[in-house]
Write a structure and sequence with these properties.
Blueprint (H helix, E strand, L loop, with lengths): L1 E2 L2 E6 L9 H16 L5 E6 L3 E3 L16 H10 L4 E5 L2 E3 L1 H8 L2 E5 L3 E3 L13 H9 L1 H10 L3 E2 H7 L4 E3 L3 H12 L17 H15 L4 H10 L6 H16 L2 H16 L15 E5 L3 H12 L3 E5 L3 H20 L5 H8 L2 E4 L10 E4 L5 H14 L5 E4 L6 H6 L7 E6 L8 E5 L6 H13 L3 E5 L5 H20 L3 H11 L5 H8 L2 H10 L12 H7 L13 E3 L2 E3 L2 H13 L9 H21 L6 H11 L9 H11 L1
Parallel strand pairs: 2-3, 3-5, 4-6, 5-7, 6-8, 7-10, 11-12, 11-14, 12-13, 14-15, 15-16, 17-18
Antiparallel strand pairs: 1-2, 8-9, 16-17, 19-20
The structure holds (2S,3S)-3-hydroxy-2-methylbutanoyl-COA.
The site of (2S,3S)-3-hydroxy-2-methylbutanoyl-COA (T1G) has 25 residues, from strand 6 and helix 3.
């Protein structure tokens, strides 16, 4: 399209205008045409639909490269004799932002988001991002943006100098006017700019923060190195280093794992039997029980814009519940996540009371009361008579059978499980449990609400522990076998933390508390297969009054909240082994990791065979987002398969 001597080039490659070979070729052809046409005095590049450019085409990774390569396209844009203006109509990510950085002027729509999310794919920007961005923002801001991969909103991009203007009215009109205005003037080429000065301390502070956040991942460290190099290196040298680093990382295991996670997240959204099923409208959510879980769920719902009706047994308990919810909002106020107005506005959408009859107004009721079958079934029977006929009932149980809870109602088809993870207003994972009778539109509503709550919903069938806790139980069992075989808790935790787990298993057990698992083991004692291997060390620990971090002693001793190795635990483990006549042997970190991974993956295979999980990648997402498994290892199913492949 051409207006007043300005050629508007629109990238139209649904769904996200990724820079496929065709798009790269198309851009080159458009520039060639513009160059040869004396009528054209300037060029605007924009995107069709709601995205500017979603980046390189991730589906092309691993395939033979096709000319023209992206860096060459961007060099051509930047070196172009006529002005090229980027009109950022929506997300400009990865290679998409790099295209914009190669243009001579950038205007963003107010809702546009910019970012270089490459580190989230285990790579670094490969088309100049690490070298051009710091020339606009300075080194500290560029480190922050590139090493975190975060999205930068248009207003912030303007204040950082990444864009030159934010369009208040029609973006394209503004871009065309700017392009026409630049025609014939000297052009500002990002590569030619000097890097704005910052002190060594400022650079080092940004780098240290980014390195600490990397937690064992390689690509953010490489991104930091490349940005820091812009202080001294010539642009061309920096670009060569960036390209070599990009190509090396692209073929790494970390990148393969993170690509797997990217596609896993998209695959998880596709749920069998829900094609074309419309969710029911939800604007008011009831939350029964406003304890630790319930108050977190209430805050998540308030954050997402829902009206929330909290229910407690008495008005005194309701008062306490409201205080807990307010305290969580206050924490977000203090950290700057919300402002005072936001807090007040959220509270205006909240009622907490002892009157269960209030739930007649709810579209969805989430139960978060004590995890006891009698308590929950009685509650559901009551709710069934209170809520509207089209309202949905959800149970937030960890271990109970939602089908049994549903069966207590007249309408089990409107019941599903929503298994939140603590703290419920923070954790990304939400297991959405499809019961035997759950209707498709009820499940679809659960998923839609979950997404609005900013969660990653994973659908699971019904079994004890659903996907996550089933795998975690297998992990726990194998960790206990390792204890008997010769490893100590600190060896196992160190191996798993070096592998990348947020916390080793024994530190997690201590944090969660040991008594619930103890009570469960006691309940199960009568039905346990006597031939199955059973490790009694955790029982001995509980008998000795060691219940974890809360009691100051568990698998470790806690001094001022810091975990320290306790010789008493070592003695207890040795005594248990001796009582069983076991001879411990040395177990190295590699064996620890391999065995724990295999235990998780084997349990995952069982979940797939039973139809509880729809696909292996769903299991990976559960463990990454709910249990601290490192995303850059791809999840236990991916990692175990990769390890088996490498062996
Ligand atoms: N390549 C290929 N397919 C992509 C894609 C991409 N970059 N981005 C999204 N898709 C597919 C996705 O799989 C899904 O497909 C559909 O598009 C809709 O996605 C040289 C190295 C842009 C914010 O990391 O963050 O540039 O499942 O459901 O919620 O330095 O997609 O429908 O078949 O996510 O509207 C850097 C990744 C690449 C951006 C849109 N770019 N994408 O969100 O839709 S590396 C990224 C996103 C790079 C250079 C390098 C989001 C989005 P399907 P969606 P959305």
């Amino acid at each position: 399209m051409q207006t007043a001597g300005v050629l508007v080039v629109t990238i139209d490659n649904a769904p996200v205008n990724a820079l496929s070979a065709d798009v790269r070729g198309g851009l080159m052809a458009a520039l060639a045409a513009a160059e040869g046409d004396a009528e054209i005095r300037a060029v605007v590049v924009t995107g069709a639909g709601k995205t500017f450019i979603g980046g390189a085409d991730i589906k092309e990774f691993g395939k033979p490269p096709v000319e023209p390569m992206l860096p060459a396209v961007i060099d051509r844009l930047e070196g172009f004799s006529k002005p090229v203006v980027a009109a950022l109509n929506g997300a400009a990510l990865g290679g998409g932002l790099e295209v914009a950085l190669g243009c001579h002027h950038r205007i963003a729509a107010s809702g546009a988001k910019l970012g270089l999310p490459e580190v989230k794919l285990g790579i670094v920007p490969g088309a100049g991002g690490t070298q051009r961005l710091p020339r606009l923002t300075g080194i500290p801001a560029a480190i922050d943006i590139i090493a975190s991969g975060r999205m930068v909103p248009a207003a912030e991009a303007l204040s950082l100098g990444i864009v030159d203007a934010v369009a208040t009215e029609n973006l394209l009109d503004a871009a065309v006017a700017a392009a026409a205005d630049l025609a014939g003037k000297s052009l500002r080429r990002t590569a030619e700019l000097a890097v704005p000065t910052s002190t060594a301390e400022e650079n080092e502070a940004a780098a240290a923060k980014a390195r600490a956040r990397a937690k064992g991942q390689t690509s953010p460290l490489e991104a930091v190195r490349l940005v820091l190099a812009t202080q001294n290196a010539a642009f061309a040298d920096g670009i060569a280093d960036e390209r070599a680093t990009f190509l090396r990382l692209r073929d790494s295991q970390e990148a393969a794992a993170l690509r797997h996670v990217f596609f896993a997240e998209r695959a998880a959204a596709k749920v069998e039997g829900l094609e074309g099923v419309e969710p029911r409208p939800v604007s008011t959510i009831g939350v029964v029980g406003t304890g630790l879980m319930g108050s977190g769920i209430a805050v998540a719902a308030l954050d997402a814009g829902y009206t929330v009706i909290g229910i407690e047994q008495t008005s005194e308990a309701a008062e306490k519940g409201k205080e807990r919810i307010t305290a969580l909002l206050d924490r977000n106020l203090k950290s700057g996540r919300i402002d005072a107005k936001g807090k007040a506005e959220r509270l205006s959408r909240l009622i907490v009371s002892g009157n269960i009859g209030n739930l007649a107004k709810a579209d969805l009721v989430i139960e978060a009361v004590f995890d006891d079958l009698d308590v929950k079934t009685l509650l559901f029977q009551r709710l069934d008579g209170i809520v509207r006929p089209d309202a949905i009932l959800a149970t937030n149980t960890s271990y109970l059978d939602p089908d049994v809870i549903a069966a207590a109602t007249q309408h089990p088809e409107r019941v599903l499980g929503l298994h939140f993870f603590s703290p419920a207003n923070v954790m990304k994972l939400l297991e959405v449990v499809r019961g035997a009778k759950t209707l498709p539109d009820v499940l679809a509503t659960g998923l839609a609400v979950a997404r609005k709550l900013n969660k990653l919903p994973i659908v699971t069938g019904v079994c004890e522990g659903f996907i996550g806790n089933r795998i975690f139980s297998a992990y726990r069992r194998e960790a206990e076998f390792l204890l008997e075989d010769g490893a100590l808790p600190q060896d196992i935790d160190a191996a798993m933390e070096a592998y990348g787990m947020a916390m080793g298993p024994f530190a997690v057990f201590d944090l969660a508390g040991l008594e619930i698992a103890w009570a469960r083991r006691k309940r199960q004692a009568a039905t346990r297969d006597p031939a199955a291997r059973y490790v009694d060390i955790p029982d001995r620990l509980c008998e000795a009054g060691r219940f974890g971090q809360k009691s100051g002693r568990g698998w470790y001793r806690y001094v001022d909240g810091k975990r320290t190795i306790d010789p008493a635990v070592t003695e207890l483990i040795e005594a248990s082994r001796a009582a069983k006549g076991l001879t411990p042997r040395a177990i190295d970190a590699d064996e620890i990791v391999s065995r724990l991974l295999k235990a998780m993956a084997d349990e995952g295979q069982a979940l797939l065979a039973e139809g509880i999980a729809a696909r292996a990648s769903d299991i990976d997402l559960v463990m990454i987002n709910g249990y601290g498994f490192p995303a850059y290892r791809g999840g236990p199913m991916f990692a175990a398969a990769a390890k088996a492949g490498a062996a």
